[in-house]
Amino acid sequence: EVQLAESGGGLVQPGGSLRLSCATSGFNFRSYAMSWVRQVPGKGPEWVSEISAGGGVTNYADSVKGRFFIARDNAKNTVSLEMDSLRPEDTAEYYCVTGGRMDYMAGYWGQGTQVTVSS
After folding, report:
1. CB neighbours of residue 35 within 10 Å
2. Which of 42, 79, 108, 117 has the fewest CB atoms within 10 Å of its CB?
3. Under 8 Å between Cβ of 13 and 63
């Protein structure tokens, strides 16, 4: 059974930082690109970042470039998202997803972790 479990969300003040983690199992993790996707109620999902299967290539949405950093550990089957200089508009449910920017919608999704940026 494929499982993806996000953790690390919470409430943070503007300008603060959070680190999201995603633990995975049930599939060949090191063969998959991985993405982080976020969604707010009433809107469609927004792709945030991707990392290649080997970890050597990363890409970011313009809205988070320079503030968010994706990484993976293929020995531990985990992917993380370091989020710095958080803004209120970063408030969303964040999901760990298999696949990259072009195919994540067809991938496996975790249950999500809520990030709220507010003073």
Report:
1. 28
2. 42
3. no
The angle at the Cα of 9, spanning 73 to 5, to the nearest 5 degrees, equals 50
pLDDT tens digits, one per residue of 74-119: 999 999 999 999 999 999 999 999 999 999 989 999 999 999 999 9
Is residue 65 within 8 Å of residue 10, measured between CB atoms? no
Residue with tokens 């709220």: 116
Q: Which residues contact 79 (CB under 8 A, 6 or more apart)?
A: 21, 22, 24, 34, 36, 51, 70, 71, 72, 73, 96
For residues 92 and 46, what is the distance between their CA atoms, to the nearest angstrom?
10
